[in-house]
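[Help] Beginner question about ligand-bound structures

Sorry if this is basic. My supervisor gave me a protein sequence and a SMILES string for 2-acetamido-2-deoxy-beta-D-glucopyranose and asked me to "get the holo structure". I don't really know what that means in practice or what format the answer should be in. Inputs are pasted below exactly as I got them.
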Amino acid sequence: MSNLQNNVGTVGGQKIYHSIKDPPLFFVMMRFNVKVVLLFILLIGIFSLLLLYSYCGVESYAYRSNSKYLSLSRLDMQGAEEIECDINGEYVIGCRKEGDEVYLPFSFLHKYFEIYGKLATYDGLERFEWSHSYSKVYHPKQEYDPKGVFMYFENYNVEVRERVKCVSGVEGVPVSTQWESSGYYYPTQIAQFGLSHYSKNLTEPEPRKKVIEDAEKEYAKWFVPTTASVQRLFDKELSSRILKFRTSDNYREGVKLKMDHVLDFVISLNLILSDNSSLSVTLQNRETKDIYNLHYITSSLLITLQDNNVYYGIGSSDEWKKMTRDLIIDLQKGLSYLDKDKSKHKIPRSKLKIVQIVLQGSGALDNLTLSSSEHIQQFYDAAEWFVRNQDGKTGGWEIPVKRKLAAGFRDLQPGWYSSMGQGHAISLLARAYHHSGGDTRYLNAALNGLKPFRVPSSKGGVLATFLNKYHWYEEYPTKPASFVLNGFIYALLGLYDLKVIAPPGEADEAEFLFNDGMDSLRNMLPLFDMGSVTSYDLRHFTIHTAPNLARWDYHATHVNQLLLLHTIDSDPLFAQTAERWIGYMSGKRSAHN
Ligand SMILES: *[C@@H]1O[C@H](CO)[C@@H](O)[C@H](O)[C@H]1NC(C)=O
Ligand SMILES: *[C@@H]1O[C@H](CO)[C@@H](O)[C@H](O)[C@H]1NC(C)=O
Ligand SMILES: *[C@@H]1O[C@H](CO)[C@@H](O)[C@H](O)[C@H]1NC(C)=O
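Answer (accepted):
No worries, everyone starts somewhere. Holo just means with the ligand present. The predicted complex, written as structure tokens, is below.
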């Protein structure tokens, strides 16, 4: 998306150049050299196998590589002898024998069976904890409520994810780098951002909130240089008092507010800025005393970094704008912008404080607050994005990047729709319609978002039909169809949310699509059961490859989705299947003949 880059803005009359080339070299290399990289990985694989093989022949692999095992064996396995274990006649590892029992190193079992384990100490007693899987099952406490928490999304922190480049200053929603390193708006991710904030609003304690300046009751002590001016005026149009500011044309010195504010790092304000104006917030690391400046500038630039200055463009409209920024997220995304190792730049909230706010150029502000969170505001930022960015004709929210699901499927070309993106958006918009007390812009966007559910994948929609019979809403509308399970159920949830929240007479289409989809799910769910794990999609059926087994977090998502459906649909299939699949997570397997 070219509008995310290239632009320059100004702070204090200084031009800001966006000097960083996008995408970074690393990604360019990857894109053109996928084959070379794969070959390289293959060679490394072969090399390490050879190495392992010869190494094991000479000496115990486990003995060397796992010192924990070594110390256990010294204490508890006196009298144990070393013994070679021949693995399927393919290679040999070092094991222990004590009487008739043989002990295999856990590091080997971990790799061989993909099971997990760690040493843990309780009340001074060390023990080994074995687990078959690593993901969490959420048992719903009550019937699913489309006006309530979405799934268990109160636990999500979408904007913290490494594949989120930053939260756009213009749009107030995250920008993804998952499939395109320069960044793009990904409807599924934006909806998850909004739904997580909505869910947090319902589950977290009340936020702290401090009004800093509202030009009515709270006056901040701005430092105004002689070349600048600040006025508090009544704005007739808004019927509210606002704070107007102007600094001198050479912009050398801004209007400043010194602060010493800790803990609450979400800034929110109504703002209007003329061209070449800016609002900057200075943060300080309380331990190292390092200073960081976050500059919000009138530009369409997405984000850039120069020394300890992070810049976000907030657009350049001459209209009032409600701006809500999590300063910690903004700082972290800024500092890690150029670095592949994102974790390096994590500065805990507790170590930072706000020391200054600076205004430069000219403009006005109102309702300036600092809070511990602004979940509902961020939820509405997402809802507004969906209202603004829907294709009115098709009802879709396009995904502007190419997606290759796997060899054997044709690539999805930029502009494709996803049933999961549509469904999530509908879940979000239905909640916005409810929360806003009936703002029909949200309802209409949600209703319009149903359109692609009737349009076959081959015609730009998200509908696939299994064996000419069962309708399936495709997360990835591939050719041939892929039948991804979790995306389909998320789409069903969106349909359910709208069917429940839409006023009578407007819920019919959502209801029809939901019932039709549930019928498909009931009939097709067994196809995803692999006897000890689940399958992520049905590619083994449509392109005749090996099944694409769901990793444990996706398997847990399947389980969580079925448990949730069980609270709104009495068919015992959902509960029974969920129970069996929970069993798989602790190693249970279907019986064999
Ligand atoms: C949730 O939103 C309401 C406004 O709808 C607000 O009054 C409340 O403080 C918010 N609570 C949290 C935890 O965000
Ligand atoms: C903003 O800055 C640019 C470049 O310095 C200048 O050309 C432009 O006239 C300025 N705009 C305003 C409204 O001052
Ligand atoms: C500030 O908040 C008050 C109260 O919510 C509102 O009436 C006013 O319009 C807001 N100011 C701006 C500039 O939007």
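A couple of things worth pointing out: Residues 201, 204, 206-207, 373, 375-376 surround 2-acetamido-2-deoxy-beta-D-glucopyranose (ligand 1) (CB under 6 Å). The chain is about 30% helix and 25% strand. Feel free to follow up in the thread.
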